[in-house]
Write a structure and sequence with these properties.
By secondary structure, this protein is α/β, with parallel strands linked by helices.
Length: 284
C-alpha cells in the first residue's frame, strides 16, 4: 500500500501541470496546478485561497475535498486534505478555507496571487441534495467545519429548498464567513462565551426547539457532531455528518482514515467523508 501512495504522489509531482492523471481516471479525479487568484485572511488563523484555471473547472459536489501538495517544506511530504468551501462556475473559481495549524498549512498561508497550487480533486462523496423544494434542511457547523456548508447551502438554495445555518464557535472572533452564509440562507449563531448569538453549544440553540427539519447535515469537531446526531436521532430526523479522520493518500489506498461502520471498516476519504449516522457505530 505504501508503494501505491508513493507512486501516486510521484506522479502528481512529475506529470505536466496540464495533464490529467489516467490513474484513477474512472473515478473522475484530476491532478494539475491551479492558479491562486486571490488570498483572503478572515482571521489570523485562517486563510481563504481563491483558485482558478484557464480551463473550466470540473463538476464538484458539496462535501467533497481537495488534496493539495505543499511545496517548499522538507517536513511535509503528504498532501493536505482541504474541504471544498465554495465553487463559482461563472468566475471559474474554487475556494479553499484553510485553518493554519502546522507547517504544511502555514506554507499554504504564504501563497500569493499568481502562485500555483497542485491539487488532486474532487475527492470523496458529498452531502445528499434535496429531492423536493419542501425540504427544510438545517446545516450545522463548528469552527473551520463550517467550510463545506457554504457551497452546500448554495446548492440547496438553487434546488428551491430552504437552507438554515446553525454555526457555533468559542467566541465571536472565531465565527467565519457570516456575511457569505447570510447571502445564501438564514443564519443562527451560538458562542460559548455569549459574545454573539445565543450562549452555549449549537445543540443548546432555541431554533432546535422552535422548528422542525426534514434533514440535518453537519461538519465540525466530533463531539459536536455526535451531539447533533443524538438530537437528530431523538427527533427522527435524517442526519449526515462529514468526518475529519486523519488522511494521507485521499484515495483509499493507505487505510489510515478507516472508520468502523455497520458495513465494516470503510475509508473516510473514499467511502466518505459524508456518512449517514445510521451507518456509523457511534454511541448516540
Amino acid at each position: 500500500m505504501l508503494a501505491i501512495i508513493v507512486f501516486f504522489h510521484y506522479l502528481c509531482i512529475q506529470i505536466p501541470t496540464r495533464a490529467y492523471i489516467l490513474l484513477y481516471y474512472y473515478m473522475k479525479k484530476y491532478c494539475f496546478d491551479l492558479t491562486v487568484k486571490a488570498v483572503e485572511r478572515p482571521t489570523s488563523q485562517h486563510v481563504l485561497l481563491v483558485l482558478t484555471d484557464d480551463k473550466p473547472l470540473p463538476e464538484m459536489v458539496p462535501g467533497q475535498f481537495v488534496e493539495v501538495r505543499v511545496d517548499g517544506s522538507d517536513t511535509t511530504f503528504l498532501r493536505r486534505p482541504i474541504s471544498i468551501n465554495y465553487v463559482d462556475y461563472d468566475a471559474n473559481e474554487l475556494h479553499l478555507l484553510v485553518h493554519v495549524v502546522g507547517e504544511g498549512t502555514a506554507r499554504l498561508a504564504q501563497l500569493k496571487a499568481g502562485d500555483k497550487l497542485n491539487c488532486v480533486f474532487p475527492l470523496g462523496n458529498g452531502f445528499t441534495l434535496p429531492s423536493s423544494t419542501d425540504e427544510k434542511i438545517l446545516l450545522v457547523g463548528g469552527g473551520v467545519g463550517v467550510a463545506p456548508l457554504l457551497y452546500l447551502g448554495k446548492k440547496i438554495k438553487e434546488s428551491g429548498a430552504t437552507p438554515i445555518f446553525l454555526l457555533g464557535a468559542k467566541t465571536k472572533s472565531d465565527l467565519l464567513q457570516l456575511d457569505k452564509f447570510a447571502k445564501v440562507g438564514t443564519v443562527y449563531v451560538t458562542t460559548e462565551d455569549g459574545s454573539m448569538g445565543e450562549v452555549g453549544f449549537v445543540t443548546n440553540h432555541s431554533v432546535l426547539q422552535r422548528e422542525e427539519f426534514s434533514r440535518v447535515q453537519v461538519c465540525g469537531p466530533k463531539p459536536m457532531m455526535v451531539a447533533v446526531a443524538r438530537y437528530a436521532k431523538a427527533n427522527n430526523v435524517v442526519c449526515e455528518v462529514s468526518l475529519e479522520n486523519m488522511m494521507a493518500c485521499g484515495l483509499g489506498a493507505c487505510l489510515c482514515c478507516v472508520e468502523k461502520t455497520v458495513e465494516g471498516n470503510l475509508c473516510v476519504c473514499k467511502d466518505g467523508p459524508v456518512f449517514n449516522i445510521e451507518k456509523l457505530l457511534w454511541q448516540i
